[in-house]
Structure formats: structure tokens, C-alpha cells
Amino acid sequence: MKTARLDLLALDIDRDLGALHAMFSDPEWARGGYMTPTASVDESRERLVQEFGDNGGWTWVLRVRPDEDAAGVIGVFSDQGSSIRGMSWYLRRERWGAGLMSEAARAVIDHLLQQPSITGVEAWIDSRNVRSIAVARHAGLDLVGRLPRTHYGEIAQSVVMGRAAEPSDPVTFGISPVLEVHDVAGTVRLLCELLSLHVHFQFGDDFARLGFTEWNGQSGLEVRRTTGEVSPAAVTVEVGVLVDPLYDTALAAGLIESTPPEDAPWSRRTFTLVLPEGHRLTISGPLSGA
Ligand SMILES: CC(C)(COP(=O)(O)OP(=O)(O)OC[C@H]1O[C@@H](n2cnc3c(N)ncnc32)[C@H](O)[C@@H]1OP(=O)(O)O)[C@@H](O)C(=O)NCCC(=O)NCCS
């Protein structure tokens, strides 16, 4: 493929490893992408093989004409059996800021989305990596989700940017668990304070809908008043911060039946807080890291 300034060639690890290793091993480059630099050529080779090795040949190096060295690489991750394909892009530091990766990403993604086996592409990007988020936007990707992340002891979030081959409105766009409680205002206060939730709608003392952010159009939690018997609900709440301080706050708020934080085998740290009516909210956050 060719763009205005670039030749995009299929990755050939033996030919391109030298140039790409110079990029992967550059500590400042890695810091800019919230990544870790590679320590050896072998590690750089391993990284290329692991990320792109078994992806059906959909990896391209960027050559800025007339230069013949790889200035960067863009591709989909190895096949994980899904028609939504994850992808990533990396550009040598001296080439940053000239719109080159945006130019490459637009061409590559337009091409990928014409493939019958690909229904969409997505990129997981550290929320602080504004350059990469801009590349995604230039290539027509939008924010579709958010993931917690622990990276060398640092807690961060990844934004999930995605673009579908054929965009469509989802049939279901939200699921809202319902908590029946005796004291709506008190429960709302507690949950907003503990989990930084926001009240989207409140109907007197009878009903409130809580959301994760102040923005409209998200599903959340419904809190409804009842005077009768309550069927306790079990709900998992995903958070992007360490859960231990939240546990301390839950205990201080008198929720002493709550179970202490522990690391789950699926790489999450969780504790369960128990509301006075018996509802069990499992708070699931990132591992505390090394
Ligand atoms: C992410 C990366 C590929 C971007 O490549 P690039 O060719 O420099 O990107 P572009 O020049 O197309 O710039 C993209 C946007 O970054 C923004 N940008 C450029 N320089 C910036 C700076 N110093 N600070 C903040 N934003 C900046 C610009 O707003 C630009 O958007 P615009 O065209 O709307 O102005 C490159 O920075 C990189 O390799 N980073 C390290 C690896 C990495 O993070 N990969 C992505 C992993 S998900």
C-alpha cells in the first residue's frame, strides 16, 4: 500500500528488526507510549513475533519515501478467534508529530475493514497517551469502552477505541441492577461517596438512578425504596482504582460484614461490601502491582 508520504510494506522480521529494535529499545520512546523498552534484539524480535506473528500477515512497516528503513510498524494482533481484531502502532521517535501514523492508520484500517473475516478493529490505549488516541480518532475509531490496567505498580486506565466495518445501533445498550432498600437517600449518599457515582435521576425518596460519570446515556444502578421484604442482589462493580482504600471506607461507614480484599485468579483484586439490606456488591479493581 502507498499513502501520500509512505510506502507500507508487509513486515519482514529479518529485514526490519534492526530499525524496529532501535525504536523498541529507546527508553524515551517507551515512556511516551507508557510501555517498557526492550533490553535486547532478541527481546525486540520476541515482541514482534508475540504481537504480530500469527496474524494472517496483516502487519506493515512504514517507510517514509525515499528512506528505505522502517520508521515504524502497524498491525493486528495474532488471531484470537474473534472477528473484532485488536491492533497497535509504533513509530520511531524522531518521526513523531508529523501526522505519519495517522496517515498510515487510516489506510491500513480502511483496508482491514474490507476483509470479510474482520467486522471491526479496536485499540487499547493508555488514557494518558494522547498522541495515540489522536491517531485512533484520525483513523475513524471512537471511544467504545474503558479497561483498568496495572503496569509496573502504576494504576492507569486504557481506553478502548473501536471502529466497526458496518456501524449499527446495539439492540441492548444498558443493563441496570436494582437494589431495593429501606432508605433511598442514605444508600445513594453512601454509594456516591464510596464509589464516586453520580445521581442521574432521583424521584423523591422512592427512586434514584446512579451512573458512573456525569454524562447521560449510560446504564447504572437503580435504587428503589421498599417497605417489604428485600431479595438481596449480587452485583459486581468494576473500578479503576485500588480497592483497599475503598474497603477501609466501607468499614468506616459501618459495613462491617464486608469481606477483606483479595487477589482473584483472573487478575483482579476484589472485596465484597454488604449493604444493610443484605445486597452484596463485589468491588473489583486492578491488582496493586509489583
Ligand atoms: C502514538 C504514535 C504512533 C503517534 O505517531 P505520530 O505519527 O507522532 O502521530 P501523529 O503525528 O499522526 O499525531 C497524532 C496526534 O498527536 C498529537 N500530538 C502530536 N505531538 C504531540 C505532543 N507533543 N503532545 C501531545 N499531542 C501531540 C497531535 O494532536 C496529533 O493529532 P492532530 O493531527 O490532530 O494534531 C507515536 O507517538 C508512538 O510511536 N508512540 C509510542 C508507541 C505508542 O504509544 N504506540 C501506541 C500504543 S497503543
Question: Can you describe what's shown?
Answer:
This protein has 290 residues and is an alpha+beta fold. The protein folds into 2 domains: 6-164, Aminopeptidase; 178-285, 2,3-Dihydroxybiphenyl 1,2-Dioxygenase, domain 1. 25% of the residues lie in helices and 33% in strands. The protein has helices at 13-24, 27-32, 41-52, 100-112, 130-138, 184-195, 244-252; strands spanning 6-10, 59-64, 72-76, 84-91, 120-126, 142-151, 154-164, 178-181, 198-203, 207-211, 221-225, 234-238, 259-264, 268-274, 280-285. Helix 1 (13-24) crosses helix 3 and helix 4 packs across helix 5. Residues 29, 32-33, 88-91, 96-102, 123, 125, 129-132, 134-135 line the site of coenzyme A (COA).
Percent range for helical residues? 25-40%
Gap between N and C termini, in Å? 42 Å
Shape: elongated
According to CATH, the fold-level topology of the largest domain is Aminopeptidase
Sheet-strand content, in percent, reads 25-35%
**Tally of helical runs:** 7
Main β-sheet, spatial strand arrangement: 1-2-3-4-5-7-6
Sheet with most strands: 7 strands, mixed
Radius of gyration: 23 Å
Q: Please mark out the parts with pLDDT under 50 across 5 or more consecutive residues, or reply none.
A: none
Write the CATH homologous superfamily of the largest domain.
Gcn5-related N-acetyltransferase (GNAT)
Number of domains: 2
- Total strand count, please? 15
CATH class of the largest domain: Alpha Beta
Structural class: alpha+beta
* CATH level-two architecture of the largest domain: 3-Layer(aba) Sandwich
| Mean of residue pLDDT values | 94
Bound molecules: coenzyme A
- The sequence of SSEs as H and E is EHHHEEEHEHEEEHEEEEHEEE
